[in-house]
Amino acid sequence: MLFVFLKNKSLAESFTEQQSILNLNEDLAVEIESLHTLTTNLASTLDETEQKKKEEAQEAKTLSYRLSLAAEEREQKKEFLTQTKNQEKIYQEELKELEAQQSEISSEIEKIEDELRRSFDVTLLPLERPGILLWPVPLATSGGQGRITQHFGERSNLYRGKPHNGLDIGAPIGTPVIAADDGIVIGVDNNDNSWRKYQYGKYVLIEHKTNLTTLYAHLSKQVVSKGDSVKRGDIIGYVGNTGYSTGPHLHFGVYWRDSIIMKSIPPAKGLVPVGVVIDAEKYL
């Protein structure tokens, strides 16, 4: 500033030049702020565009899967009709046999769960509060497609009057199912035996650091593998009607992590997860 005063012939010229410099600095500050705002807006727009691309890609993937699933279902129906030769009597006999076999499987699971429950220590579980787990299929009330069709502990003829060991969420076949929390996939299996449907059908089992393990059953497709690390909200499969099921829905089970055992219970194929079950809604 002193240089400005000394180099000019008059005080008026010095003040005029000083004011010009101040005005220039102010203009530069405004331009810099505008540039910063533009950069921020551009970054935000790019983020939104990238997110939209991801969402569109996922929607396209889901649509493609639903189309392939429709073809798979036609093949399954064709196989079933071939097996029964369209004879109603054979069909009814097969249903009765499946019901009897499923009843035996359920009884075996109940016995094991009762034994495991004796060593259950409730203090090892996280405090019951909302938000510990995400809804694996968002409900229609929050913008999703799911609806609760049966709560934990409810009794029905389908389970021989026994308490239901999970939370059923009805949704269209092909609806994405997401991981309720961060964890490691410890089970991916299918209990169905050809067109004969048993227990959980296609399922995914995830172990969490909260001393909980979550089960996602009756899926039409699993998109993770055993040993995978998943994040809260990751898609792990799609709603289906596999296993012992009367309609498209997700059976969501929550277990005390340390109680889980994988049991072979013929005629169900693969392994059936068994453990101490907990009311999922206390953590959702």
UniProtKB/TrEMBL annotation:
Q: Where is the M23ase beta-sheet core domain?
A: 163-257
Q: Which UniProt keywords apply?
A: Coiled coil, Signal
According to the lineage, what is the superkingdom? Bacteria
Pfam families to which the protein is assigned, alphabetical: Peptidase_M23
Q: Which residues form a coiled coil?
A: 46-118
One molecular function GO term is: metalloendopeptidase activity
**InterPro entries from the UniProt entry:** Cell_wall_metabolism_enzyme, Dup_hybrid_motif, M23ase_b-sheet_dom
Tell me the CDD domains matching this sequence. M23_peptidase
For this protein, the record's PANTHER family field holds: L-ALA--D-GLU ENDOPEPTIDASE, PEPTIDASE-RELATED
Q: What is this protein called?
A: M23ase beta-sheet core domain-containing protein
Tell me the classification of the organism that encodes this protein.
Answer: Bacteria, Candidatus Harrisoniibacteriota
